[in-house]
Automatic annotation (TrEMBL):
InterPro entries: ClpP/crotonase-like_dom_sf, Enoyl-CoA_hydra/iso. Coiled coil: none annotated. This is Enoyl-CoA hydratase. Belongs to the enoyl-CoA hydratase/isomerase family. It comes from the Bacteria. PANTHER family: ENOYL-COA HYDRATASE, IP11341P-RELATED.
Length: 260
């Protein structure tokens, strides 16, 4: 089990619980996480969903080791199918759950970690939180769920992608990606207090407010952009597959080793 789930006071708390791997997302973790989102969405006693993580880091992103073919046997077709379901479809489904959601983020939130917090309606970050998408160093133009432009604005999105440097919690708050920045020790309390405040609002009003904002983004092109940029992302995999040994896995190993 990589996900903990509990409901109390109308709040469903979903906890990433793979701290020994910096909550890297293997197949099992993502399947359990999607099931937890679906459970919270269907539960009439749940008014707000709170996503949090155990350990030092929120998520080190995708864990591509295990559960698939050997590097020399990986095909673009296999990658496309796997990433469509577990990354693109999951993130879009979580975004559109008709209940308010909050992500509480601490430590590193790297690449695929953004696919967990960006679909949430609000983000509370600890002062030590760092958000990054360094996959340009792997020859890919950004992670599968391309919320960068919407979350950061075009120029800041390009800076973060072009340089691979992490965005601090303070910077993220300034550009509107993060709602609140709190001390690390206060992260759980602050996120739960915000969830409790929202849980007292009328459920139908909350649902309609969320739908209004999401639909406005979709009319502006959000959904179409997410879909089209996903295909651009796949060309990066195609290019990587042309190099012996699929070097993306090597880069991922190097990145995760620095978190231990």
């Amino acid at each position: 089990m990589y996900i903990d789930y509990e409901v109390a006071d109308k709040i469903a708390t979903i906890t990433l619980n793979r701290p020994e791997a910096a909550n890297a997302q293997n197949k099992e973790l993502l399947e359990e996480l999607d099931a937890a989102w679906s459970r919270a969405a269907a539960d009439e006693e749940v008014a707000v969903i709170l996503l949090r993580a155990e350990g030092k880091h929120f998520s080190a992103g995708h864990d591509l080791r295990g559960g698939g073919p050997a590097p020399e046997k990986i095909t673009l077709e296999w990658i496309y199918q796997e990433e469509t379901r577990r990354y693109l479809d999951f993130s879009l489904r979580w975004r559109n759950v008709p209940k308010p959601s909050i992500a509480a983020v601490q430590g590193r939130c790297i690449a695929g970690g953004l696919l967990l917090c960006w679909p949430c309606d609000l983000i509370v970050a600890s002062e030590d939180a760092l958000f990054s998408d360094p996959v340009v160093t792997m020859g890919i133009g950004g992670v599968e769920y391309h919320g960068h432009t919407w979350e950061l604005g075009p120029r800041k999105a390009k800076e973060i992608l072009f340089t691979g440097r992490p965005l601090t919690a303070e910077e993220a708050e300034k550009v509107g990606m993060v709602n609140r920045v709190v001390a690390r020790a206060d992260l759980d309390t602050a996120s739960r207090e915000l969830a409790a405040q929202i849980a007292e609002m009328p459920p139908f009003g909350l649902r309609q407010a969320k739908r209004a904002v999401n639909q406005t983004q979709d009319v502006q092109g959000f959904y179409a952009a997410i879909q089209s940029v996903f295909d651009i992302h796949q060309t990066g995999h195609g290019n990587a597959l042309s190099v012996s040994g699929y070097p993306i896995l090597v880069k991922l190993d190097e990145m995760k080793a620095k978190l231990k």
